[in-house]
Design brief:
Blueprint (H helix, E strand, L loop, with lengths): L27 E8 L2 E6 L7 E3 L12 E2 L6 H7 L1 E8 L5 E7 L5 E11 L2 E5 L3 E8 L14 E6 L11 E2 L7 H6 L6 E6 L3 E3 L4 E3 L14 E4 L5 E9 L2 E6 L5 H12 L3
Antiparallel strand pairs: 1-2, 1-17, 2-5, 3-4, 5-6, 6-7, 7-8, 8-9, 9-10, 9-11, 10-12, 12-15, 13-14, 15-16, 16-17
Length: about 270
Amino acid sequence: MAYTSFNDINEDENIFSLQEANTSDRYKLAYILRSKGIYYLYTLGDNDFLYDIEPRDVNVGQSKKIYNFLCKNKIELLANCKIMMTAKKKLRKKKFTICCLNRYNKLEKTDLFLKKTFNSWILQDDIYDYMGIIYNDNLNLRVKDGPDKIVTIIPKYYETNYNISKIRIKRPENDIVSFYFSKNNINLDIIKNKKAEWRESIDSWAMPFQFPGGLGSIKNTVMTNYDDESIVETLKIDSNIMAIVYKKPFSLIHAFSFGLSKFCKN
């Protein structure tokens, strides 16, 4: 990787921040590549939108949405995208440490980590919780009659926020998942997975995705809000690459964390 010298940095330049809130109503796209035990998060340069023209913004005379460039394999991914973050699972622990691209174009370790407790993953640091991802009501069981039940919870986003929201936690007694189960949800955005439909013609569960193509996989998921609007989707495009489509209130770190939890789910 090429490093940037201090003299090459413009102090007024808009630098990516790990905790930057996503304020866009448009769908964005990222990819996770798994390679030799490390998970790399890629985005497509400075334009990370899924569509060049959103379906709702199509002008008269245009009958379909227009996609931005879509990577369909590892060669296209490495040639057209840049690494924004990495995650590595700690040896014999259910915990990911996260590195992020800094202003000198160099990956450095952050204070955030993704940790599994029972059947949930929590994005946190030593003081705050930023997100909870709950599988099957936090019970260690496998759903036999269909895909997993999944709930994601994030502290409520407000339009005045420049950074993602967080909750100060008194550890070890509490975490964002225990808040959810105690019905203390007034300050949480709750997003649940869309129920898949069984298709006899293909002998499989199926649901519509924003990203075209992809592979059939148990790791494919569509998460929706109370209005049944898709907020985040994961779709395997090969055995080691996952496409993630997301929009507000999910930020890039939320999307990465959710994708990691799906990658690791059996």
